[in-house]
Write a structure and sequence with these properties.
about 400 residues, six-stranded mixed β-sheet, alpha+beta
Length: about 400
Amino acid sequence: MYRFLAIIFSFLLILSPSVQARQRNLEISADSAILIEATTGRVIYEKNADVRRPPASMTKMMTCILGLEYLVPEDRIRISQTAAYTEDSELMLQENDVISADELLRGMMLVSDNGGAVAIAEAVSGNVSNFSLLMNEKAREIGCTDTNFENPNGLPNERHLSTARDMAKISAYCLDNWDFRDIVATQRETIHWLQPSDHSVRVENTNKLLGTYKGATGLKTGWTFAAGGCLAASAKRGDIELIAIVMHSEDAVTRFQDATALLDYGFERVTSIYGIDKNNVEKKVFVSGGEQATLEVGLEDDLNYVLLRDEYRQNLKVEYDLPKVVEGGIKVGDAVGMATLKYNGKTVASVPFVAKENVEAGFSVASLIVSLTEPFIEVAQDFLLLLA
């Protein structure tokens, strides 16, 4: 959870004047777009990124990740009449067909099957209405502030809206799931039914960047007359992975051209990721009123920042805000401080310090001494460490 708070924070950063000046050189047809670095969420380019628009079938990213989180691959899903009669079922699902969750999720994502999305929703939540509530709850958890889902497939609904920024957040969240990554990176697949047992369909991913754009890793296409051409596209080269979102592109072809231009723009400008490995940062704080006198703490996640072409590592500085003394009653994972990364004095990323062990409230001689010496803990700390 703390990782996504850090990602959300990165999305809120104001682009520097130099970045704003550079992005004017990029022209795309999409009315809304954003380009981010996937692990940090740093915004590299944006255009009307907070305008609410229909996300079309990019919606299915949320349906897929919830299916992966709530179902197991072997779950048997029976196709309802509602799912079978949903328009544009590219898999040609029939009422009472039975298909595994894994096969259905793959088929749904590769050919953007609307009926399959309804079947996943029904398998997870019983019906589309309940599943939409779950989708919106997950969107808020991820940090989306301008998204409202009314269905699992993105079919037109005047209240079914999102933004390029929110779609990028959802994309970054989904890419943390390796099963999701495997699905959206698949170009072709044979989807097998359980009933009829001899039925299978060969499908091809609607994302035409796979296999044609260097390093393409996903994600999801979208198209309706209201939404225009939509695309969530990701690509990785070396240690750098980028996510491009385009919404309301001119047509189903220009969405790929727009995403390609965005990704090219990003790979030309991102030079490296400055990173502090969480495993290399371990500290101790003293405990007052605890069964022991010290607490091991560490970073909740790596502290990373994307450097662009005209930015330099020497301008980065890490600051630790960590109390010398905490009260007993700490549980593993509790936040006890913050590590902040600054570029030229401006905060660009932050990660919490969290407890790496439990320390129950109670009594110990060393903890009592911590309590008594807390006003001058700086002087006494070497002695206290010996006692602990």
